[in-house]
Design brief:
Elements: E1 4-10, E2 27-28, E3 31-32, H1 35-44, E4 48-53, H2 57-63, E5 69-73, H3 80-87, E6 97-102, H4 110-125, E7 135-143, E8 152-155, E9 161-165, E10 179-188, H5 189-195, H6 212-219, E11 223-229, H7 241-261, E12 265-266, E13 272-274, E14 279-280, E15 285-286, E16 290-293, E17 297-298, E18 303-304, E19 309-311, E20 314-315, E21 320-321, E22 326-328, E23 331-332, E24 337-338, E25 343-344, E26 349-350, E27 355-358, E28 361-367, E29 372-375, E30 378-384, E31 389-390, E32 395-397, E33 407-409, E34 414-415, E35 420-422, E36 425-427, E37 432-433, E38 438-439, E39 448-449, H8 461-472, H9 475-481
Parallel strand pairs: 1-4, 1-6, 4-5, 7-11, 12-15, 13-16, 14-17, 15-18, 16-19, 17-20, 18-21, 19-22, 20-23, 21-24, 22-25, 23-26, 24-27, 25-28, 26-28, 27-29, 28-30, 29-31, 30-33, 31-34, 32-35, 33-36, 34-37, 35-38, 37-39
Antiparallel strand pairs: 2-3, 6-10, 7-10, 8-9
The chain binds uridine-diphosphate-N-acetylglucosamine and calcium ion.
Length: 482
Amino acid sequence: MKNIAAIVLAAGKGTRMKSKLPKVLHKVSGKPMIFYPVQALKDLRVESTVIVVGHGSEQVREALPDKDLGFCEQSPQLGTGHAVMSAMPSLSGSKGEVLILSGDVPLITKNTLRALLRIHRRSTKGVKGRAVEHPVISVISVLMDDPAGYGRVVRDGHDRVCGVVEDKDLAPSQRSICEVNTGIYLIDMAFLKTNLKKLDTKNKQKEYYLPDLITLAYAQGKRVKAFTLLDSEEVMGVNNRFELARANMFMRERINEEHMFAGVTFTDPSTAYIDNGVKIGEDVVIYPNVHLSGATTVGAGSVIEEGVKITDSRIGRDAVIKSHSVVESSVLADEVQAGPFARLRPGTRIKKAARIGNFVEVKNATLGPGVKAGHLSYLGDAVIGKDVNIGAGTIICNYDGVKKHKTHIKDNVFVGSDSQLVSPVTIGKGAYIGSGSTITKDVPAGALAISRSAQKVILGWAVKRDELLAVSSSPLKKSSKK
Ligand code: UD1
Ligand code: CA
C-alpha cells in the first residue's frame, strides 16, 4: 500500500499487568499479543512498519524476528505522544499518512484498518463533488457500555470531534461520555511532523499524550474524522489480566468459528483451545477441553477426543487421538490410533495405522506401520519396524545412568508382555521374546529369546504352610514366649 507507513507502540511497562514480562508479550491464542497488529499491517502491505520498544526491548525484538520490521527505542517512556516522537527519525523518508496502532490492542483486523483508510481517503474527496478539507487525523472510536479506563472522545456543539480526554483527566460532566478512543489513528504525515513538538505534559499523568494531537488539530481549524465502530470487542485494549483473559476468549471464538466454517466439528467450541496458526482438515471432530498449540496440523477426518493436548505436532488423516493423551513435537501418520492416556514425547514418529494404547510413553522413537503397543509401555530411543507387537508392560531400558542407547526392533517381531530390552540391543526380523524376559544381547532373526528363570513347583506347599501357621499361633507357644 503506497504512501502509508505504520508505527506500533510497544514501549510501555504495562504496570497494570503486574508482571515481569513486557505487556505486549503476554500471549493471546499462543502468540504474543503484539504479533496480531503487526500481522494485520503485514497483510495490509504498508510501506514500512516501525515498532517503538522500551520496556523489555530485547525480548520484544526477539519475539518479532521478521527482518522487514524496523525498531526504535523510547527511553525513558514519557507517554504515547513521546513514543511517536521517538519513531519519527525512522520515518524521515515517508510521505502520505501514518497508521498508528498499539501493541496492546490484539483483536484489530486488517479489514477494519482497510475501512479506516478508505473512509479517510473518501473524506478527502468531499460530498457530491464539493471538495471538503482533507482530515489530518482519522481516529477509530467505539461506543462502550463501560468506558472506564479509556480516553473519551469529546465533540463540539456541531458534533465535530474536538479532543480526547484521558480517563484520569475527565471532568465530572465528561464521565458519562461513552464514545472512546481506541488508540488507532491514521495521521497526515506533514501534520504529524509539525505538531508532535507542540505536545506537552500538562495532565494528571505528566505524559505526552498522543491523542492531544486531536485537540491541536481542532484548535487549528483542521478536520478530524472519527470512524465509529459498532463492535467494541475488536478494539479492546489489554491492560490487565482480566482484559487478557477476555481477549483470549474473543480470539478463541474467532479462531474456532473460522475452523467451523472450514468444516471442523466442535462438540463444545467454548472449551476448545486452538492456537493461532494451527491447521485442521475437513471433517475433523474435536471433543471438549482439547488444546492444539504451536505449529500443529491435524489431517482431514481425524478425531481428537476430550482432554487431549497436542503441541508442535503433525497428525495425519483419519487418526484417532483418544482421551487425555499428550502429544509433543511428534509426527503421526494417517490412521494412527493413540491413547487414551498416551504420552508421545518429542521425536516420536508413528507410521501408518499403528496403535498406541493406554499408558504408553514414546520418546525419540520411530514405530513402523501397523505396530501395536497396547498397554503400559515405555519405548524410548528406538527404531521399531513394521507390524511389531509390543506386549503389555514392555520397557526399553535406554539409559544406563550416563548415556542413552538405541534399540532396534526389526519387522514382525513379537515382544512378550513385561519384557525389558536393555539398550543397545537389536532384535532380528520375525524374532520372538518370551514374556518377562530381560534382553541384554542381540537376538537373531527368527529366534526365540527367553531369559526368565525356570518355573519351580512345590507340591502340597499350601497345606504345610497352614500347619506351620497353626503351630506358631497356639496359646502354648505364645505363653512360652513370655
Ligand atoms: C491509550 C490512549 C487512550 C485510549 C486507549 C485505547 C493515550 C494517552 N491514551 O490509553 O486515549 O482510550 O489507549 O486502548 O494515548 N506506550 C509506549 N510508550 C509510552 C507509553 C505507552 O510505547 O511511553 C505504548 C504501550 O506499550 C501501549 C500503548 O502505547 O502499547 C498504549 O499505552 P497505554 O499506557 O496502554 O495507554 P492507555 O492508558 O491504554
Ligand atoms: Ca492500553
